[in-house]
Amino acid sequence: MKFEHFAINVPDAAAHAQWYVANLGFKIVRQMTVAPFTHFLADETGRVVVELYSNPKATIPDYKALHPLNFHLAVVAADARADRARLEHSGAPLVLEAPQADGSLLIRLRDPWNVPLQLCQRTTLMPMPQ
Prior knowledge:
By secondary structure, the protein is an alpha/beta fold. The chain has 2 domains: 1-55, 2,3-Dihydroxybiphenyl 1,2-Dioxygenase, domain 1 (Roll); 68-130, 2,3-Dihydroxybiphenyl 1,2-Dioxygenase, domain 1, CATH 3.10.180. It has helices at 13-24, 80-89, and strands at 6-9, 27-31, 39-42, 49-53, 73-76, 94-99, 105-110, 116-121. A 4-stranded mixed sheet has the order 1-4-3-2, covered by helices on one side. Strand 2 (27-31) and strand 3 (39-42) form a beta hairpin. It is globular, with a radius of gyration of 15 Å. The mean pLDDT is 95.
């Protein structure tokens, strides 16, 4: 089996998707313009897809109350501090900047809807399938 997507129920899927496109460089690969306004977003490789939707049939989690160690979206950052500044300016508040013993830098933020977001500037990148 291979990973297809990870889904998140959010209050305003269309606005949320547009923020990820504008600020994370994600691309909308499929969307619905009627309820539940599902948006499938791919990263620059097209290898990872996240689904954002606004479905009242399920409770939207209280993302602000959710600890980032329980759940977060993590993205690779070549310059995590520069990305942090840019994202903070775009409405993503800082949670924690965590330099790692190996020289990596992990920065936790929350997007404007409080979904935990992590910037990963690693000294050794995660292995990617060929």
